[in-house]
Design brief:
The chain has four helices and five strands. With 218 residues, the protein is α+β, with helices and mostly antiparallel strands. The chain has one domain. The strands form two sheets. It has a three-stranded antiparallel sheet. It has a two-stranded antiparallel sheet with strand order 4-5. A hairpin with a 3-residue loop joins strand 1 and strand 2. The longest helix has 39 residues. The protein is globular. The termini are far apart.
């Protein structure tokens, strides 16, 4: 199996798991519902967000459109870069795998933003229906990203001596996320931990090639 095929298989599997789980959550839970998988530390907690990974928001209707368009452009750029890398035999497959994870995660969340508003009705106070008769809850580009993984590993209170937040409840890890977010995070951290020097080397070589070509044309 070639490296290109391996990359495609990995991307497909991540997208399959991501979308199957999201569709199951949407069609079985309403927003705020949760299923305790392992008591006190692993919970499937259904939330939706209009913005970025791990539930961070991107304000306003135009902000949502901007983010969706930006994601599409980013995915096209990452896909082109991944296709280019896969043809270079000297590139470690681990680096290609990392880019594949980021690519798959980005596509996974884009699918939510582009289509979920069209194919699902609203999940607030009810379990959503796939392809409802009355249409979806939003238009193209305005879908909300489905998140479900919640790991409240440590719960307590901030020390009283801390200004402003002293005595307030503390939860680690508070953000709710999905399979696509996980893939992006693992891909990025893999590059930073294991392939940062290699990534910088690739960028330097491409820059040198461009400068040489410009000098030749001049």
């Amino acid at each position: 199996m070639s490296r290109s095929v391996k990359s495609i298989v990995i991307i497909f599997l991540i997208l399959l798991v991501d979308q199957v789980l999201k569709i199951w959550i949407k069609t079985n839970l309403s927003i705020g519902d949760e299923i305790v998988v392992f008591k006190d530390w692993f919970i499937l907690h259904f939330v939706e967000n209009n913005g970025m990974a791990f539930g961070f928001e991107f304000a306003g209707e135009y902000g949502k459109i901007f983010l969706s368009v930006f994601r599409i452009i980013a995915v096209v750029a990452i896909g082109w870069y991944l296709f280019k890398l896969a043809k270079q035999k000297e590139i470690p497959f681990g680096f290609i795998l990392s880019i594949s994870l980021i690519f798959a995660g980005a596509i996974g969340n884009i699918i939510d933003s582009l289509f979920y508003g069209i194919i699902f009705n609203d999940s607030s106070g009810q379990v959503a229906t796939l392809f409802p008769e009355g249409g979806g809850y939003a238009t193209f580009l305005h879908g909300r990203v489905v998140d479900m993984f919640y790991f409240p590993l440590i719960e307590g209170r901030y020390p009283e001596w801390l200004p402003k937040i002293g005595g307030n409840p503390f939860i680690f890890f508070r953000p709710v996320f999905n399979v696509a977010d996980s893939a992006i995070t693992v891909g990025i951290f893999s590059i930073l931990l294991f392939y940062r020097k290699h990534f910088n080397k690739i960028e330097a070589e491409e820059s040198e090639t461009t400068e040489t070509a410009d000098a030749t044309e001049a």
